[in-house]
Design goal:
Elements: E1 3-4, H1 10-15, E2 19-22, H2 28-37, E3 39-41, H3 51-58, E4 63-66, H4 74-79, E5 86-89, H5 99-104, E6 108-110, H6 117-132, H7 135-144, E7 164-168, H8 172-183, E8 187-191, E9 205-206, H9 210-216, E10 219-222, H10 236-241, E11 246-250, H11 259-267, E12 271-276, H12 287-290, E13 295-297, H13 306-324
Parallel strand pairs: 2-3, 2-4, 4-5, 5-6, 7-8, 7-10, 8-9, 10-11, 11-12, 12-13
Antiparallel strand pairs: 1-3
Helix pairs in contact: 2-13, 6-8
The structure holds (2R)-2,3-dihydroxypropanoic acid.
The site of (2R)-2,3-dihydroxypropanoic acid has 7 residues, from loops.
């Protein structure tokens, strides 16, 4: 067990009442903040958290910091020690936590919304541009050492200016993507359960029918949460309705897309290219993606900037501190 107790004086040790267990290493400022106040059981970036490993890691802990890389199903939640009061997920998404089981255990669950909006929206634009401009093929050519110079017909991509961008899910990140995309000259449309307040709609046009949005989207970007209703929201039928040569981008959650349908459409060039940051069974990627030139892949880096990851950790700690001091946490899901 890796419990941090860095040269603490006996007085400091006496003042520390609670143990916080993190499943992964956290940005150093976050670990330092935790160590100043609590015992910290640091996480292991290489561990696979089975139920029994989770249970052992959580032994004696009052609070857990977890990430979407761990699955907290009912079995794992039920095996957690009774000492655990709060699970703070280092993410906005919380589909990896069985909320019914957590609720039955009386656990508090918190997440880290808001602070990762800009980073994730930036990365979405990176994927849109990389997919549109054939960045994967360009990288391959230059790294091969076989590039023979600029040619008028070499690796011609799609200009995003003037293209219709469809956004599924117009939450904070969807709106930030809309704002950025307008400055690239894209015409932005969105589908959401409800149209959003016109002051806040990033000058995007609401399309009440998802199928209508899809049939108009030359570029389609997914920004909805993963729920039983949104799983496979981009299925074979909807992919067939995309305009020929569309671009698909996903920085939300892998299971929103039916991989078989997407791969088939990429192979047939019904879809020109895709930019993906998230995958159905992370970290296991459907191997077919790895052999395709018209996909630009990143390893779930949406929120991966130093500032953002530190801010996410600080939000998680704010919630833990609130709960351990008997207060309501700022970002409570449950
Ligand atoms: C989230 O917050 O849900 C992201 O996927 C982590 O970057």
């Amino acid at each position: 067990m890796n419990i941090e107790n860095p040269h603490a004086s006996s007085l400091e040790v006496r003042e520390k009442h609670f143990l916080v267990a993190a499943t992964r290493r956290l940005p150093s400022a976050c670990e330092e903040r935790l160590i100043a106040k609590y015992f910290l059981r640091k996480g292991d970036d290489n561990a696979t958290y089975s139920s029994s490993i989770f249970k052992a890691h959580a032994e004696g802990a009052s609070a857990l910091i977890v990430t979407p890389a761990e699955r907290l199903d009912a079995n794992t939640i039920n095996s957690l020690p009774q000492t655990v009061k709060i699970i703070a997920t280092f993410s906005v998404g919380h589909e990896h936590i069985d909320l019914d089981a957590a609720s039955a255990r009386g656990l508090i669950i918190t997440n880290t919304p808001g602070v990762l909006t800009a980073a994730t929206a930036d990365l979405t634009l990176l994927l849109i541009l990389a997919a549109a401009r054939r960045a994967r093929e360009g990288q391959k050519l230059i790294h091969s050492g076989n590039w023979s110079g600029i040619r008028p017909t070499q690796l011609l991509g799609t200009q995003v200016k003037g293209k219709r961008l469809g956004i599924i899910g117009m939450g904070r990140i969807g709106r930030a993507v809309a704002n950025r995309s307008r400055s690239f000259g894209m015409k932005v449309y969105y589908h959401n359960r409800q149209p959003i307040n016109s002051n806040d709609n990033a000058e995007a046009i609401y399309v009440p029918s998802l199928n209508d949005l899809i049939s108009q989207s030359e570029i389609l970007s997914l920004h909805c949460p993963l729920t039983p209703e949104t799983k496979n929201i981009l299925n074979a039928q909807r992919i067939a309705n995309l305009p020929e040569g569309a671009i698909v981008v996903n920085t939300a959650r892998g299971p929103l897309i039916d991989d078989n349908a997407l791969i088939e459409a990429l192979l047939s060039r019904k879809i020109a290219s895709a930019g993906l940051d998230v995958y159905a069974s992370e970290p296991n990627i459907d191997k077919r993606y790895l052999t395709m030139e018209n996909v630009f892949l990143l390893p779930h880096l949406g929120s991966a900037t130093k500032d953002t990851r530190a801010a996410m950790g600080m939000l998680a700690i704010d919630s833990i501190e609130a709960v351990l001091n008997g207060h309501e946490p700022p970002h409570q899901i449950l």
